[in-house]
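User: Could you check the structure of this?
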Amino acid sequence: MRSRKFEVLEAVSRIERFDASPVVLSKALRLLRDPNSEGSALVETIQADPALTAGVINLANSAYYGVSARIATLEEAVRLLGFREVYQMVSVSVAQRLFNSPLRSYGTTPQADWETSVFCALVMQRLAPGHGLDDGEAYTIGLLHAIGRLAIDQALGETGDIDAFRTDPSPWEQREVRYVGLTSTEVSAMLLERWRFPERTCEALRRQTSPPSDRDDPLQACLQIARLCAAGMTGESVELPTHPCLQARLLGTGLDGAGLNALLASCRQRLDALRQALSA
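Assistant: Sure, the predicted structure tokens are below.
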């Protein structure tokens, strides 16, 4: 009889084979981080995935970007909107494709999963400059931080344990270890390793729920802060993190409680605008 952990590993392989768009995103991230790369290389990378190309062009023509002329090609999108904006469109489109089914084990909807991921990505993007991080890499790790839940949900569907998992009163990580032998953060890192994301990105995902330390990679620390700020997506006021290491990182970049809530309000506005653009 196959183990539940084996089912998760099988689900990781299925997700990897089913959708190649994260590989495109990984290649695009490498181009974004290369100061010598050109827009033509990004266009060539995206064009390898026709559905992703169509999604990017559709988003480029939305009210979110406010371009007066109709954009018909990726080349035009890069020329009019810039390398980084097109990279962000790729990220959003990839997330839409990945979060396209309810995660029954976690009791969430595709829309809620997508919105939480995008909000976390927007917060990461805003935090990045104050911590010396590339905003494209920060955006990506925020967007994909919970991707491991997809594989765990599939595995629990195979073993018939969805209801037992969902109704278990234990914290999520304890349930994941009990039912499948791996945490979703570990599985998230495994998926990004399969998709050839940078080692630093994978390690930050793997350690995102570890106890904070002043020796942590800033990428990991920012992700921990962004996860704690998820309550701000609904408009609730958010306090500074109580952990002294995370609090010190925010205060060190000039963000007090009021500044953090202003940042979250800005991210909510951008999320609302992006939601409207994609539903138009």
